[in-house]
Amino acid sequence: MRNFALLLLLAAARISCGDAFTPPDPSFVHTISHTSIAFVKHEAHNIANLYNDALHQFPLATKMLTGGTLATAGDAIAQSKIKEEPYDKRRAASFMTFDMAYRALQHVLYPIVVASCHGQHIQHLLPHNMIVSNDLLAGMEETAVAQLAIVPLFYYPVFFGLTGFLQGLSPGASLDRAKEMFIPLMQRNLLFWIPVQFIQFTYIDEQLQIPFLSVAGLCWTFMLSAVAGSAAKTTVSPNASTPQEQLDEQVVVEEDDINDQDFAVPSALVNEKLTANTVSG
What is the C-alpha separation between 113 and 141, in angstroms, rounded? Predict the structure, then answer.
């Protein structure tokens, strides 16, 4: 750190004393570039070590803070697309609180899932002459449990209940919001999170799995916030027959008894077709 600072001072001195139109010495430029890259790598390594130490000493708190920070960032990106609306702190707080709560749930449930699923269930369904790695089968089983059990039974009930409560909805209004949004969101959820969680369970160290999901969740939170971030009540065109059409044709209705501020997401943002690359597991 000290050598890097001295090198920067030397570079500034040479620039201030030299001719502004004289090209810099190539060897000096190479030294500056090499030292800068080495400094960045060294600091990144130190930060990674500090994070790993925090994960080992305070695993639950570290995972919750990581998830909450990245969820807030994802919601902020989604809100930045709404040019005519100010930043909604209440909505951001609902996403941060929800993500922190869900990371705590994952911290408890995922070790149980990993300990229970070793590929034995899928192995019984395969032909006897088919040989598949146990690690791959275990990853498939763990992903299936996460996406087909934990997500619909825990993730979305907590999401709609907690974010609705924090944004001022009654229990009945939160339930109506869940009924309208669940199927479209679950479809996107499966498209995005099945491959992500297969990588997580199969190739990522167990201690780093939830931080890995939190990073991937930055993209997911942006999508979730864009589509279902607003807890404002919506009405749907009678011509919309499928859940996707209902989502695409929804019209936001202002409700003074819910919020003083309109949380509506513009229809152009709601109608955006998000692919698997832009869609917690």
Answer: 9
